[in-house]
Specification:
- There is one protein chain.
- The protein has helices at residues 5-15, 17-23, 29-35, 40-68, 70-89, 94-122, 125-157, 159-180, 195-206, 209-239, 244-272, 274-298, 303-315, 317-331, 336-360, 367-388.
- The chain is mainly α and 412 residues long.
- The protein has 2 domains: 1-184, Up-down Bundle (Growth Hormone, Chain: A), CATH 1.20.1250; 194-398, MFS general substrate transporter like domains (Growth Hormone, Chain: A, Up-down Bundle).
- Helix 4 (40-68) packs antiparallel against helix 5 (70-89), helix 7 (125-157) runs antiparallel to helix 8 (159-180) and helix 12 crosses helix 14.
- The protein starts with a helix and ends in a 24-residue tail after the last helix.
- The model is unreliable at 393-412 (pLDDT under 50).
């Protein structure tokens, strides 16, 4: 079966809503804090609040899409996402804006957790992997352009316009979705949620030493990236006087380099193996973490040093996340759906925790960003070496099997 280009782009737009929701308004965080008579650390919490809701909701909304169907779950998510954007655009206080971000995060989770399931309904094995790669390629463009576009909107119409842009984007995605994407899960294929089996599957994951190593390596690496996302606007704009539009350029440069390195990872993985590339990526991130730790101890490092050290760390984001996910999923080949949901919730949950800590320990300096990224880089490497390297047969020999999963796809 061939997927239409229009449907492929629609799925990519749906998957890109959460990256846009996070990255588009990053340049406006200082302005939001000033206009709503709040502080930068509270404004930064609006990022981590979105991520926290987004992470936890996936554990519930994934099974819900198997009960309600794909269109109902995505459609409900789009409505919540649009409603949250409208609340944020009209927010008179920081409390209202935070409530809007929570609603937006719930809607984003419903969309993000269902799109892969929808594609899985249509395709098997290699075609599924190929289609999801194309969808994610479209999604990867969002962090590249969003901060720059957000900076331009901020200069032209103010931060309220950024959330109106997210509302328009959600309405556009919703219209295309209703027209172009059919229901892929028939009524006869739906079933009631089985809480007992889901809990037993999660227990299986938590008991697997090597699987946890891959999971924590990817999650801590992602936590370092979220530390950068949450704190970089303050460090660049408020602390070093970078203009909002130029902040988007600096931010986009990190994403561009990470994309180029990730493309090389995809080309080299069949030659060198995911395990070796994961070790390389973690090694580079640990070197970057030590540099960041040194800059934090320095006290007042120059901007160029911060940019260089963070770029070195973030350049390995795709290498570590992709190959760690490969190792984790290979550990649970017989319960891939449950493992995927647990991985997403863990990754974004830890990202939300790190972002919250960065905000709570705001000192008016670059120290929270530097120490936060340093901690995550070191923790990612140590998690892998302590848990994975001491376990036999890494990456794919074992296949963790849930009690109620007699076939590879039966955990849906």
């Amino acid at each position: 079966m061939q997927i239409r280009l229009s449907m492929l782009l629609t799925l990519g737009l749906l998957s890109g809503l959460t990256p846009f929701a996070i990255d588009l308004y990053l340049p406006s965080l200082p302005a939001i804090a000033r206009d709503l008579d709040s502080t930068i650390e509270i404004a930064q919490l609006s990022v981590t609040l979105y991520l926290g809701v987004f992470a936890l909701a996936q554990l519930v909304l994934g099974p819900a899409s198997d009960v309600l169907g794909r269109r109902a779950t995505i459609g409900s998510g789009l409505l919540l996402f649009a409603l949250g954007a409208l609340i944020c655009a009209l927010a008179p206080t920081m409390e209202v804006l935070l409530a809007g971000r929570a609603v937006q995060g719930l809607g984003g989770a419903a969309i993000a957790v269902t799109v892969p399931a929808l594609v899985r309904d249509l395709f098997e094995r290699d075609r599924y992997a190929q289609t999801m790669s194309l969808v994610m390629l479209t999604t990867a463009m969002a962090p590249l352009v969003a901060p720059s576009v957000g900076g331009l909107i901020l200069v032209w119409v103010g931060w309220h316009g950024i959330f109106m842009a997210l509302l328009i984007l959600a309405l556009l995605a919703g219209g295309l979705f209703l027209i172009l994407v059919p229901e892929t899960l028939g009524i006869e294929q739906r079933h009631a949620p089985e809480l007992g089996r889901v809990l037993r599957n999660y227990r299986t994951i938590l008991r697997d030493r090597s699987g946890l190593g891959y999971l924590l390596a990817g999650a801590f690496s992602f936590g370092g990236m979220m530390s950068y996302i949450v704190a970089s606007a303050f460090v660049y704009i408020d602390l070093h006087g970078v203009e909002e539009v130029w902040f988007g350029v600096y931010f986009g440069a990190n994403v561009a380099v990470a994309m180029l390195v990730t493309m090389q990872n995809a080309r080299l993985v069949l030659r060198f193996g995911a395990e070796r590339l994961l070790r390389m990526g973690l090694g580079v991130q640990m070197i970057a973490a030590l540099l960041l730790l040194g800059l934090g101890l320095w006290g007042v490092p120059p901007l160029w040093a911060i940019i260089g050290a963070t770029l070195l760390y973030l350049s390995m984001a795709g290498v570590v996340l992709g190959n760690a996910m490969a190792g984790f999923m290979a550990s649970f080949a017989r319960m891939a759906g449950t493992a995927s949901a647990f991985s997403g919730a863990s990754r974004f949950g830890l990202g939300a925790v790190m972002g919250s800590l960065i905000s709570l320990f705001h000192t008016g300096t670059a120290a929270p960003l530097l120490f936060g990224m340093a901690f995550c880089g070191l923790a990612a490497g140590l998690s892998y070496w302590l848990l994975c390297c001491s376990a036999p047969n890494p990456l794919g020999v074992r296949s963790g099997r849930a009690q109620d999963d007699p076939a590879p796809s039966s955990d849906r």
